[in-house]
Amino acid sequence: MKENFADHFAEIKKRLTNRLLQIIRYSFLFLFLGNGQVFGEETTIDLKNLETSPIYLANSMLVLEDPNNQLDFETIRSPEYAGKFLKLPSSKEAFNFSYSKSTYWLRIQVQNPNPIPKDTVIVVAYPRLKTLDLFFQSTKEFKQIHSGYTIPLSLRPYKSRFFVFPIQFSGNTNVTIYLKVNSPNAINLPIQLWDKVAYDRHEIDDHVIQAIYFGIALAMAIFNLFVFFILKDSNYLLYVLLVLSTALTIASHNGIASEYLWQNSPWMDQYLINILISVVLILFLVFMRNLLNTKKLVPKLDFVSKVLIVVQIILPIFYILSFDSFIKIMVVSHSFTAFWILFNAIICSFQKERIAYFFLLAFAFLFSALIVSTLRALGFIPTNSFTIDGPQFGSAAEMLLLAFALADRYNTIIKEKETAEALVKSNLEKSNLDLEEKVKERTYVLNKTLSAMRRDLFVAKKIQENSLITDPKLFHQLHLVYRYLPVSEVGGDFFDVCQLNETKFRILIADATGHGVHAAMITMAIKGLYDNIKNFELMPSKVMEIFNEEFMDNFVSLNSLLTALILDIDIDKKTIQFASAGHPAAVLLKKNEIQLLEKTGRMMGLKKQTHYGQSELHWETGDRLFLFTDGVFEAFNPKEEEFGEEKAYALFQSTRNLSLDAAEDHLLKTLQIFLNGQDRQDDLTILGIDL
Hints:
Layout: H1 2-33, E1 44-46, E2 55-56, E3 62-66, H2 73-76, H3 79-82, E4 94-98, E5 103-112, E6 118-124, E7 131-137, E8 142-147, E9 163-169, E10 173-182, E11 187-195, H4 196-231, H5 234-254, H6 256-260, H7 266-291, H8 294-297, H9 299-321, H10 323-350, H11 354-378, H12 385-467, H13 472-478, E12 480-485, E13 493-499, E14 504-512, H14 517-533, H15 540-555, E15 562-570, E16 575-581, E17 586-589, E18 594-597, E19 615-618, E20 624-628, H16 645-654, H17 660-675, E21 684-690
Parallel strand pairs: 1-5
Antiparallel strand pairs: 2-11, 3-5, 4-11, 5-10, 6-9, 6-11, 7-8, 7-10, 12-21, 13-14, 14-15, 15-16, 16-19, 17-18, 17-20, 20-21
Helix pairs in contact: 4-5, 4-12, 5-7, 5-12, 7-9, 7-10, 9-10, 10-11, 11-12, 12-14, 14-15
């Protein structure tokens, strides 16, 4: 009997304690918010006031607490419970029930006086709520929508980092909306009513802001990681780990991680945020001890810092084993550890340690944000946009200021190094003077050699240009326009145009592997071989086979390869006969289609006695033919994206109504825009013919 009485008394004591804490919290909110209305008439939200800005619903909602978690929807909407809903104190934007095992029911009336239906969304902008169900009741319909982090993102009515409920209000309706909330985490309820279109736009803007923050964090991490590899200073690696863990903590805090990293992991949503905060604080303690050298500067305080590192390692283990028992201990330990780091930074600043000023200012931002977040989670300050987004703003400021701290440290190291170098320099000035004289002499010789090389290159360029000169009458007869753009002064591309008889013309376009002087010398030599055989009135395939044999006999030792395309254009028969040795396909633009002159054999220089096939096609007056080397499409921009053959073909087709000159200029201009300041990687030659 005594034991039953003791248990009963303990239960009553527990309930009274919880109720007392709740009264204290509400009293604090009363003082903080300046309004303490607990009972009051229910406010009806009029949708005619809903435009591009949201309506905050917290001040207009009535609340019913279910400490035993036993009530269902049918019960709470019964006349018996209708009058038990209270108007509790809240900020303008949100309710804050802190850590509570109770289930909370919220109710609000919404009316649409217009005859036209209104598409809206109700948004609860806090991602760590386990259960969040919405009940929609009007005279015409009833709807129930389940949400919360236990519901997979794919099954939620609106894919978002927050909990979003799309609702259409019919014309001339009065609707009662209920929300059921329960969570082991702090229960914060920033509730907004949005116009559907306005919220879609707002969410896009919000994602842009999030992208900027995480982009900055990633950029800072990558940059300082490179600095770490260069300087081998562990502080930069610690900074990288600190930035990445802080960014992941922010992503977990604001729901970005739930939306993109783990879309269906209730465990992560419930536990990970506080574990990540412990990781961030551990890294901060280690970073502080290294950067401020607290072991030497404040040895007594340094011991406590090491103890706190151990505490922040052990405490999350107990937190995982017993969430309810250790959640508030975790939150308080985070605040104490943050305060300790701030205290150490202040003490080191009094020691006139220059880098401590930067560290103090940086951590002060994060400390303030962490304290605000902790007080909000414990229910001592209201939930609003400032207290929700405060950690993100503090994190951004902290990252930048810590980067300045590392930069200042690096600057100090550089100055110390410069001082040491100045001492060494004073002892080496005499030897440096002698060295400068030798450098001047060597520079003179090198400049003289360079000038000679430039003259030789200029001569080589003129020789190559002269070798490409073709009788202008042939260009006129064929309506041929060309562009020849080597990467340097000379290149590995070349072409030739000759007339076999009154109606037949032969065109060669070729590309030696590589570019520059080496490729140019090979092309000049090969051009000489081709000049001896080009006027044979043989089929292009036979000429190509002879050309390959001569090439292998004379230049196989140069380890160079050659792509080539030989084609004969018969003006009278309106035919094109061609053979291609691994060369990019030429393009024949007809009225309604595009034909490619595909390769008919392998590259020249691979094997003797190579057989080359031959193809023939017909053309009509008004058709257009393009021959080119791979420099036209094998071009890469700074993003390592290739221009590609398909884009080149599309440009040929899109400029069909332009003159050849204009079409080729447009191609080159488009290619230049695509390169976006990047230099071309290969020689470029293009021949256009209006048939």
